[in-house]
TrEMBL record:
The keyword Nucleotide-binding applies. Gene3D superfamilies: P-loop containing nucleotide triphosphate hydrolases. InterPro entries: AAA+_ATPase, ABC_transporter-like_ATP-bd, ABC_transporter_ATP-binding, P-loop_NTPase. This is ABC transporter. It comes from Butyribacter intestini.
Length: 299
């Protein structure tokens, strides 16, 4: 749905994007993460056709997006710095967007407003708190009934209840209408509940792009105990971390989870448990040794 190839962009000689390549599949939720200044917002501005790459290409639905109004109509974009007309209330903004976007769904807007009771629809949006402005932008974007939703830090500055609300609405849109979502965030913990794919950016490049399923099946955390002699685990599986407490060994093992489990079961343990790993842990263990300072990138 969205394919970027070797995208480069420099600002006054500074390479904000340095051969960034990525692929967002139709109907998926793609989380873009990375440290401050990694290039996430710049990449997003290319995807939404605001910027033209110096070199490389970005195709959305098979077409070049820059200055392409037909493609841009399919995209709803919430930037990190949201624009509202000076005097406009939320309802005024709704009327404005309803006039521009032919798919704008007023019934959906009304329904969604019910889920954000703290929003005063008659108040000037620019007078609202930052969090409320974010909520307003989100309501408007979803009501456009876009094929693609591009969200730059959509829940940044929102309270936990609103964060959850927004993620729920997003997931509902994806499941019901097959909307493709690209979302940037600093929060891997939140992304792991909603994303199918994760792209990590650093210094203008997308350094890692993996599906969540692929990641979750690639590293396992196992607690295992033996009655007598403890085997040399390294002979059977690829252990990247090993700690012991009493008789219980906790192993982090790289490789296909099922194969790992079978191999360790073959060693006849008296206890063996597979424990869940967080996405943060998976990235750290999965990428350890690939010359990335993953901890520095993610936290
Ligand atoms: N219009 C611009 N002019 C000059 N430099 C820019 C411009 N836009 C971005 N940059 C630079 O490009 C780099 C990437 O910025 P960008 O905003 O894309 O990062 P980011 O990953 O979104 O960061 P954050 O997480 O802090 O929002 C930064 O060093 C920034 O200063």
């Amino acid at each position: 749905m969205i394919v970027g190839k070797d995208v480069c962009k420099s600002f006054e000689g500074f390479k904000a994007l340095d051969n960034a390549s990525f692929h967002v599949r139709k109907g998926s939720v793609y989380g873009l993460v990375g440290p401050n200044g990694a290039g996430k917002s710049t990449l997003i501005r290319h995807i939404t056709g605001v910027f033209e790459p110096d070199s490389g290409s970005i195709n959305v639905a098979g077409e070049n997006v820059f200055e392409n109004s037909v493609i841009k109509e399919k995209i709803a974009y919430i930037p990190d710095d949201i624009f509202y007309f000076k005097q406009a209330s939320l309802d005024d903004m709704m009327k404005y967007y309803a006039g521009i976007y032919k798919n704008f769904d007023r019934d959906l807007y009304e329904k969604l407003c019910g889920g954000f009771p703290a929003l005063d629809r008659k108040m000037r949006v620019r007078r609202m708190s930052k969090g409320m402005q974010k909520q307003s932008a989100f309501l408007l974007a979803v009501s456009m009934r876009p094929e693609i939703l591009v969200l730059d830090e959509p829940v940044d500055g929102l309270d936990p209840v609103m964060r959850k609300q927004i993620w729920n609405i997003l997931l509902n849109e994806v499941t019901k209408y097959g909307v493709t979502v690209l979302v940037s965030s600093h929060n891997l913990r939140e992304l792991e509940d909603v994303c199918d794919y994760v792209g990590i950016m650093n210094k203008g490049k997308v350094i890692i792009e993996r599906s969540l399923a692929e990641l979750q099946g690639s590293v396992s955390k196992i607690q295992i105990a033996f009655a007598d002699e403890v085997p040399d685990f390294g002979k059977y599986v690829n252990v990247v971390n090993h700690s012991v407490m009493g008789k219980v060994h906790t192993l982090i093992v790289k490789g296909d989870s099922e194969t790992v489990e079978d191999k360790l079961m073959g060693l006849n343990p008296i206890l063996m448990d597979l424990l869940p790993l967080t996405l943060e842990e998976i990235f750290i263990y999965e990428l350890g040794g690939e010359n990335y300072e993953v901890k520095d990138i993610l936290f």
